[in-house]
Every structure is written in structure tokens, then in C-alpha cells.
DNA sequence: TTTATTATTGTATCATTGTATCATTGAATG
DNA sequence: CATTCAATGATACAATGATACAATAATAAA
């Protein structure tokens, strides 16, 4: 759990929670925080910064909504995996193949044939015609990161 | 002791224990788990899912209270009689569709298109040509399950 | 076999973490 | 002034984790 060295300016007109948001974003961008890293708890950081922990929680929630971190009740908050660009194309491909294997095995385990599994996927993809552009979609999933407290 | 192939989404707002409950219900409903089958121990499943075993225990307790499983201190947890003995074909179909949805969403989360997801599955199914016939799968069912002293 | 010991299983209790809701503050505005 | 509203604080809560415990099984000892 790294010390974030966040510096607040209580005289500023920019709200505390926004200062926290900005500085965490900065730390991630500069590479001081890596995917999977656990952030201080809302109460720890709040004590360090001499603010109410709700203010830290509010900052964390904003960062969570922007998919930069993952806040998990009872577990903590973790830096979320960077969207895509850092993962090599080969690694992405291997992950996709692993997902396909899992889907096939699950279907077989339920007594379906591989052709039925394939047909089910085709049916799903044809019904949901509107396929969101990967560029626009705010990276809903991938959630690889935070479950392991590194 | 079957591997349940439970997949958790730590970023979701639905609690872990509810995700476990839902997926076990699913597995029973579609016939992947039969009366008498022993579930993984709370610690085994917890280690596999990277969560605290109390979380698994909480899920098991909920399933026990709904009379779907029987948790027995010192013995383990076992599938009870299914409330609906005829696992409907519709339920199996719904489960397959849910699995397909998960596969698609995971692929999209990795930045792949739906067509790429489909192609990956097709490639996998073509390479592994040996497909076990569903008819051959013997019902590994409850024939001699570990007598539940309920 | 019988008994004692050890291991494994689920249970109970509390601590820790983030969340939800409302109260308070203080500055902007009329 | 009074009003309003965003920012922050206080409190209660839900989800998860850590630890000790009790019940059952498995094994060893007598």
C-alpha cells in the first residue's frame, strides 16, 4: 500500500476531492502506481490528509467511475488494469483463446455439443446487432487487476 | 468434488456471495450438479476464487436456507434434491445463452469485436475435432451419493 | 475393537473496508 | 438578512476478511 504523497491546498477554490482525483490520475500517468496496486483505505488516506474519509471516498468513487481504479466494499481499492494499449496483441489473443476454451468446456459440461455452443454464440451476436465501437466503449470489463493484492 | 467453473466479477455491484449463490443455482438447475454431489469445501472454493472463505460460507448458508444444498459441519456440503426434478430443456438453454453472453462480454472487454470472438471459437472447435456425443455422457448422477444425514 | 489424537469441515464473532444517508458549514446570490 | 447549494462531516450500514471455535472424519495407539 504505497504512500501517495498527496499535497492538498486547503486555501484553493478547487474542492479537496477534486485535488485527490487529479493527483491520483497524475500518479498513475507517471507510472508511480501500477495495475493491481492497492491504494490506501479511505480512512487511512483521510487521516493522513486530515480530512473526512467521505471526502476520500468521493474521490475514489469518481476515479472508479472513470475506470481508473476499482473500489470493492470490504476489500479495498486497487489500480485497475490499463485499458488495452499495454497488453500485447499476442497476449490479448491468448486470453481470447482461453476464454473460448472456457466457454466450450462449460457448454460441454452441460451436455451441449460444440455445434450447439457455436450456434448459441452466433444467435447472440446476430440478435444484438448494434456492436459498440471498441474505441467509444469505456472499457467495461477486463477486470483482470484488483482481485489479487499483489 | 466437481470444479464449479464459477466466474466472479469483482467490479460488479452485486456482492461476491450473491454471484456464487446465483451460479450454483444455475449449475443445479441445468443439471451440471446432481443430488448427492459434494461441493468444494468453503476453503477450496475460496482459494480458487481468491476470496475469503467466509464469503463462500455465506453463499453456502444462503443456498442451505433455500434447501438447495445441505451444509454439514465437519462433513462438507452436498447438493440436495432439486426442487424441480425435471431440469427443463429451457433452463439448460438459458444457461448456455448466459455463458455465451459472458464470453462475448469478456471478448469485448479485451477490445475484440464480436466477429473476432466468433472466429476464435470456430478456430478452437475445428482444431479439437473429437467431440464427445452428449448421449454418451452417463448421468453421473445421484446414484450412490454420500448419504445425507439431513 | 476401542480409545485417543489429529486433520478437516463448517460456524461464530469481530475487525476492516467501502457505501448510503443525512446534518452541518460556508460562500454565493437574491 | 434569507435562501440556496455545493463541499464536507457524522453516523449507521453492508460486504469482506481474520481469527478462534465446534463438529465430524480420519488415523494412530492401546
Describe this protein's structure:
Among the domains of chain A are: 16-79, Arc Repressor Mutant, subunit A (Orthogonal Bundle); 89-127. Chain A is built from five helices and two strands. The first copy, chain A, has helices at 16-29, 42-49, 53-65, 89-109, 114-127, and strands at residues 69-72, 76-79. A two-stranded antiparallel ribbon of chain A has the order 1-2. In chain A, β1 and β2 form a beta hairpin. In chain A, α2 (42-49) packs across α3 and α4 (89-109) packs across α5. At the A-B interface, α4 and α5 of A face α4 and α5 of B. Chain A binds a DNA duplex (30 and 30 nucleotides) through residues 15-17, 41-43, 51-55, 57-58, 60-61, 71-77.
Fold blueprint:
Two copies of one chain form a homodimer.
Chain A: H1 16-29, H2 42-49, H3 53-65, E1 69-72, E2 76-79, H4 89-109, H5 114-127
Antiparallel strand pairs in A: 1-2
Chain A binds a DNA duplex (30 and 30 nucleotides) through helix 3.
Q: Describe the strand arrangement of the main beta sheet of chain A, using strand numbers.
A: 1-2
User: So how many helices of chain A?
Assistant: 5
What general outline of chain A do the C-alpha atoms trace?
Answer: elongated
Largest sheet of chain A: 2 strands, antiparallel
Q: Tell me the radius of gyration of chain A.
A: 20 Å
Architecture (CATH level 2) name of the domain at 16-79 in chain A: Orthogonal Bundle
Q: Largest interface, per-chain counts?
A: A-B, 51 and 48 residues
Number of strands of chain A: 2
Low-pLDDT runs of chain A? 130-150
Sketch the topology of chain A as an H/E string, one letter per element.
HHHEEHH
Instruction: Using the coordinates shown, work out and report the CATH topology of the domain at 16-79 in chain A.
Output: Arc Repressor Mutant, subunit A
Q: What oligomeric state do the depicted chains represent?
A: homodimer
Give the structural class of chain A: mainly alpha
The rounded distance between the terminal residues' Cα atoms of chain A is: 10 Å
Q: Which whole number gives the mean pLDDT of chain A?
A: 82
Helix content of chain A: 40-55%
- CATH uppermost class of the domain at 16-79 in chain A: Mainly Alpha
**What's the CATH superfamily of the domain at 16-79 in chain A, by name?**
Winged helix-like DNA-binding domain superfamily/Winged helix DNA-binding domain
Strand content of chain A: 5-15%
Amino acid at each position: 500500500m504505497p504512500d501517495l504523497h498527496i499535497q492538498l491546498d486547503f486555501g484553493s477554490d478547487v474542492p479537496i476531492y477534486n485535488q485527490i482525483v487529479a493527483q491520483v490520475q497524475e500518479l498513475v500517468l507517471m507510472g508511480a502506481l501500477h495495475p493491481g496496486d492497492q491504494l490506501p483505505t479511505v480512512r487511512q488516506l483521510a487521516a493522513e490528509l486530515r480530512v473526512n474519509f467521505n471526502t476520500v471516498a468521493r474521490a475514489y468513487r469518481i476515479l472508479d467511475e472513470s475506470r481508473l481504479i476499482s473500489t470493492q466494499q470490504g476489500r479495498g481499492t486497487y489500480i485497475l488494469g490499463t485499458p488495452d494499449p499495454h497488453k500485447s496483441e499476442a497476449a490479448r489473443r491468448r486470453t481470447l483463446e482461453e476464454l473460448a476454451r472456457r466457454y466450450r468446456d462449460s457448454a460441454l459440461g452441460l451436455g451441449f455439443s460444440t455445434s450447439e455452443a457455436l450456434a448459441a454464440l452466433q444467435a447472440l451476436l446476430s440478435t444484438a446487432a448494434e456492436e459498440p465501437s471498441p474505441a467509444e466503449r469505456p472499457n467495461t470489463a477486463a477486470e483482470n487487476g484488483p482481485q489479487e493484492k499483489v
